[in-house]
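Researcher: Re-running this chain for the archive, since the previous output was lost when a drive failed. Same request as before.
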Amino acid sequence: MTVFGKHNRRNLLGGLRNAASASSEGANRQKLEALLSVCRNNLSSVDEELISRAFRYMLQAHREHRRKSGEPYSTHPYAVAMIVAQEIPLDDVSVVAALLHDIIEDCEHYSYEDLAEEFGSTVADIVEGATKISTILVSKEITKAENYRKLMVSMINDIRVILVKFADRLHNMRTLEFVSEAKQERIARETLEIYAPLAHRFGLGRIKWELEDLSFKYLHPEDYRALKKQIAAKRRDREDYIERFCKPLSTELSRANLRFEMSGRPKHLQSIYKKMVDRNKTLDEIYDLFAIRIILDTKEEKDCYLAYAIVCEVYTPIPERYKNYIALPKRNGYKSIHTTVLGPDGKMVEVQIRTREMHEVAEKGIAAHWAYKENVQSKTSAFENWIRWVREVLESPPAAASEEEGARQLLDNFRRNLYQDEIVVFTPKGDLIVLPNGSTPVDFAFEIHSEVGLHTIGAKVNGRIVPLNRKLHSGDQVEVITSRNQYISTDWEQNVVTHKAKTAIRRFVNEQTKQVLQKGREKWERKAKKLKIPLDEAPLLKAAEQLRFPSLSKMMVALAKDEITVDEIVRAVQSEPASTEKEIVLPQKDQQQVFEEFAEVARSEKGIMIQGQMADMEFEFARCCSPLPGDDVIGFVTLGRGIKIHRRNCRNIQRLMQDSSDSGMRDRLIEIAWPENGSLEYLGGIRIEGEDRPGILNEIALAVTSYRNTNIRSVNIESEQSFFHGSVLVTVQNLEHLERLIERLKKVKGISRAERYVEMS
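Model: Regenerated structure tokens:
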């Protein structure tokens, strides 16, 4: 038995720490060398000193951080850098940015300026861009649309921003088991909806498929495990079949002196699952699970056609399953020949034929373009049209009635462009135009020019006149017929799919509606002045209701189009409207009087408690924040005027609590509470705004009174042209009661804003 004294124990512990530190340094040296080795193999030029410096800088910045798995946090940026170097090998700057991508966000002592000084502004810009889009939340439409916008703007500024984010998301998905189930589902859904489609658009096939499979794993865990088990059980049979299929093909390809690599291409789990769901079939009923890929070691595209001819000689092709992406590449630069043939035992097998360079582009997308193109200006040529489209969407947001509707339209435009397949059509001169699947001749016309689209009156497809809502197909030749004296119909928005067409049509419709509306108003004003009828909105609103128009603007448009006459409106204005339902008459009061009554009655009915006891001293309520029963309140002891009651989130109170220069002022704050008595009621105020129309007051009243028999104390509404604003005072039991009423009012057609009324504006 060995006995250690105190001095010996200290030496032993110190030795162990030194050994651990030496071991850690040795492991870090090995990791750095492995990263540099990958960079040497995949990048055309490597600044090893820059990468080494970034690696050491990253270790220092994250030295105190740990991942959810318990590992040192540095394992994450290192893994992201390895993914960038292996999967998306663009340049050494991308690798450096990947190593540093979390520093601005996670390390409070490091800033953009620090990175710019140490590694240059380009690296700092990429890291900052990646930081800005690090939390793309799947939440409300407006939030989601704004985050899409941030992502797209960052991507346009430097394409490497989004490439680093792809690598970051891929490693996070690979290690997602260490976070909560709720977070797993949120991140997986976000990945499936945003990152996987974007990876597809950038041509990153390998990353796209892995992101989709990992998302499937966490969104549908039981289905994922079951499907994986089923496929694994049949793996041997599948491999035997692929071997039988490839053997005669290999013989014939070799006989034609082609150098090639042929292998079974695994169908990805999420792809199989989607087919099963879409077709409502079991795994055994999905026939096109077998797929092979022929990669030719040649630079000649014509060799791909020779290989295709050999495949068709050996096996019977299915003509409608043939796609030639070599002659007509996808917008992300993807090139390949796809065909499906009947293999042994009558089973369908998908065959892809491509050159080695095409395969690199299919797997690594823009990074492969970077590697194969010598001219910097042409490196991203395959993506220029798409980047131009993104700029167009960001610079010309969709016109919409509300912010939320505009956000929804923006998302739809992004999603449609990311998810939809493309078609390729031709102009009469043979120029190639790429459009989303489902496009019509009108989309084609707007793609040529907005003015061409607006003046389109007909179209020829392959020499024959067709309806303007006919869907185009790849290979169609399209000729647009226009007329300077005619415009496209205003209801054509439903027959187009491209952002450019939808935006141009909406803008045209809005402009036309404004002109027609103005024409109708001028028509009415001339008649009204002649008959000395006041130009007030109120009689016109009654006339619109009597003539059964949903709004005043609709009546004016009808007048401009001669669908009704001025005399009909005059008769309606001068007569009592024959209302089909009893109008609910609500008391009107001066707005100042309304609020004062609201505040004073509410407070007198409830009283207050000071430090747990009913108040027996003088107090008053601060006008700066108008506290009401149910609010979180606090008191301020004044000099000679008792206690002033404020809402706790009042700006003045917040400023006082944050001011460290006068502790005596803060000591005059005192805890205040409302008495807990659920049987009492108090007044609640609601501000409302919206489009004025016949019957709107009835609908407001119904929305309020139909909920818990709520009593309306007063209403104050003012109308200006076709809009109204005002307030409603109601008797409620608590704040939750008031919030429910506000939610119900927001659902009334025409109301654009409903919010709690807490003080005079």
